[in-house]
Specification:
- By secondary structure, the protein is mainly alpha-helical.
- It has helices spanning about 1-15, 25-30, 30-35, 60-80, 90-100.
- It is flat.
- The termini are far apart.
Length: about 110
């Protein structure tokens, strides 16, 4: 009996905690119902879901990407201007070699 309660308890809790779809199931399927009413076959999938089409043009997307790249370049330039000059690669490598040398053997 204890095993049944242990096994079914989480299942019941999960079933009770499942959230409902926002706006309800009927609103989520409205695009499908509209296609069927227009005479489209229920077996064929649409090329895109009409409710999910982007509302901005390709030119707006390109402009937005250009704005993001400009902002990235400005932030990178500011960071490079304020960064302390670091040691060059060779100096860092030499320091790493010195730290990595094994200790002298104990006789």
């Amino acid at each position: 009996m204890t095993r049944i309660i242990i096994l079914l308890g989480p299942l019941l809790l999960a079933a009770c905690a499942t959230p409902a779809l926002p706006g309800g199931f009927e609103e989520e399927q409205s695009w499908f119902d509209a296609r069927v009413e227009e005479g489209a076959s229920a077996d064929e999938a649409p090329a895109t879901i009409p409710d999910k089409l982007p509302s901005i043009s390709a030119e707006q997307l390109r402009q937005s990407a250009a704005d993001v790249l400009e902002a990235r370049d400005a932030v990178s330039a500011d960071e490079r201007a304020t960064r302390e000059p670091g040691s060059d690669t060779e100096a860092y490598a030499e320091e790493a070699r010195q730290r990595a040398e094994p200790p002298n053997p104990i006789d």
